[in-house]
Each structure stands twice: as structure tokens, then as C-alpha cells.
Amino acid sequence: MGSILRIDGPIYHFLSRVVELILLNILFILCSLPIITIGASVTAMFSITLKMVRGEEGGLISGFWQAFKNNFKQSTLVWVFLSLSGMILALNYFFLQFYTGNFTTIILISLVMFTVIFCMYLVLIFPYIARYKCTIKQACVNVLKISIANPYLMLLIIVITLGSTILMFFSPHVFVIKLYLDIFIGFSLITYISSFMIRSMFEKYEE
């Protein structure tokens, strides 16, 4: 029993990780409040969680802030582009219901394909920027290559990252639970879990 509760035991390690994720979640929310800075905040959060799963941990607050500043320009540009792309996709889905032409099926298939590509970039480009020094063009090309080379793992990451967000719009119970969790630990916990899978993808190309 003593070995379990000691300072280097599993319970202490688990509780320490929970506290770190709560703190990381608070940092993410505070730095995301201007909305335009969400991309930089996501990148900074992934910078910390990717180090956590690789055993490369350092100062959490200083590490987050350093990653936030270093990747601010790139991440913000990517976030603006993704936000605009997401709005365009949403508008296309909205107006599709009023379309009565002969190419409805083709248009729908095209929208689904663009949505899948959009989701791949949404969940993977920020951790890629967090992990590697590169241009936005290089990040976009490499993220697409990695996603195509790892379709099943990519799908799992998308489901874990976006699944609960999608469900919350269909169930008031899920909405309340997710809102409550997100305030305390939800964002950082999902990022931490997905970081294990993202690390396994990245490591294939680091050898």
C-alpha cells in the first residue's frame, strides 16, 4: 500500500497529471478568449501534451507561453484560413437543401470529401506546427501525406477530437456534460489522449 501512495507511485503520478491538465485547460481557455488566438492556443497546448506523452516535460506555464509566442503568426494564419473554410462549408450545406438541380448527389459527395479534408487539417495541422519548425506550405503538404498514409488512425483522432462536439448539438444532456468538463479539463484531456496517437504517427517519420 505504501509503495502505491509514495511520491513516485502511480496514484501520485495520476493526480499530478490531472492537476497539470486542469492547469493546461485554464491556460488554453484564457489565451483563446480573443477567439482569433485560438489557433496559437491549440498549438501551445499540443506542444505541452506531445512532450508529456514523450516524457519530455518541462515547465508547463513557461513552455505553454513560449510555444504560444513562437507559433503565434503561423497558427493564427492557419486558424483564420480554417475558420473561413469551415464557414464556407457550413454555408454550402445550408444552401444545398434549397438546391433542386440535377447534380445534388455530385455536390453532396464533393462537400463530404472537402469536409473530411477539412477535419484532417483541423485536428492535425496544429500539433504538426507545435512539433516541427516548418513553413505553412510544408505543414499543409506533410499533414495531407501523413493523413492519407494513416487513414484509420486519422479517423480515430477525428472521432475523439470532434465527436463529442458534434454530439452536443444533438443532445442537451451531452451539451451540459461537455460544457461542464470543458471548463475544467475537457480541452486538455482530449488533446492529451489524441497526442498518444499523433505521436505514433509522427514517430514513423522521425526515424
Q: How many helical elements?
A: 10
Radius of gyration: 19 Å
Assign the structural class, choosing from mainly alpha, mainly beta, alpha/beta, alpha+beta, or little secondary structure.
mainly alpha
Helix and strand pattern: HHHHHHHHHH
Largest sheet: none
Helix content range of the residues, please? over 70%
Spans of 5+ residues with little confidence (pLDDT < 50)?
A: none
Globular, elongated, flat, extended or rod-shaped: what is the shape? globular
The count of DSSP E runs of length 2 or more, i.e. the number of strands, is 0
Instruction: Compute the separation of the termini in Å.
Output: 41 Å
Query: Beta fraction of the residues?
Result: under 5%
Describe the fold and architecture.
The chain has one domain (2-203). The chain contains 10 helices and no strands. It has helices at residues 2-5, 10-32, 38-54, 60-70, 72-96, 104-131, 136-149, 151-167, 172-184, 186-203. Helix 2 packs antiparallel against helix 3 (38-54) and helix 3 crosses helix 5 (72-96). It starts with a helix and ends with a helix.
